[in-house]
Amino acid sequence: MNIMSRGRTILLDKRFELTLQRLAHQLIENYGDFSNTCIIGVQERGVLLAERLIELLEIELGHRNLEYGKLDITFYRDDFRTRKNPLKASSTEIDFLIEAKRVILIDDVLYTGRTIQSALAALQDFGRPEQVELLCLVDRRFNRHLPIQADYVGITIDALDEAYVKVEWKEQNSKDRILLFPAK
């Protein structure tokens, strides 16, 4: 039996969609018409979440063009040079400055905080934002290495061990779901 067959489903289909809708509505409550605000998805998995949220936001806001970018953090990672296998870089697609803007940084899972630390460093190449808030679908709050926390959280998973959380998207798989796998 492989590790993928031992995963426990944490969130599936309808509750997954409701969680995305709740996050979108929280953003609308706090950002209104999204003036002077941009959304940045962290490559690769944060981009999938960001694009789904943007779709929901545009429906709710009447098909506005939200300022959106994709951020690759590969060369900002603190383990970039220490990994056995080379990392595969994705593209950064931000065609605007974030100078004095409110930035909503989006990633799928907040685990140790190192990805977000790298994303914050990478964002500096695009200006100095007025504010950065973090949205994540899953918060693994007991496994943090750095003092980083999300402002918007879809679901919190309190696994104390080295369990693995996987978010599957219907665009890549047949359904939306969040799985928890035991430590190896």
Automatic annotation (TrEMBL):
CDD domains: PRTases_typeI. InterPro entries: PRTase-like (IPR029057), PRTase_dom (IPR000836), PyrR_bifunctional (IPR050137). It holds the Pfam family Pribosyltran. Residues 13-171 form the Phosphoribosyltransferase domain. The keyword Metal-binding does not apply. GO terms for molecular function: glycosyltransferase activity. Coiled coil: none annotated. Keywords: Glycosyltransferase, Transferase. The keyword Glycosyltransferase applies. It comes from the Bacteria. This is Bifunctional pyrimidine operon regulatory protein/uracil phosphoribosyltransferase. It comes from Portibacter lacus.
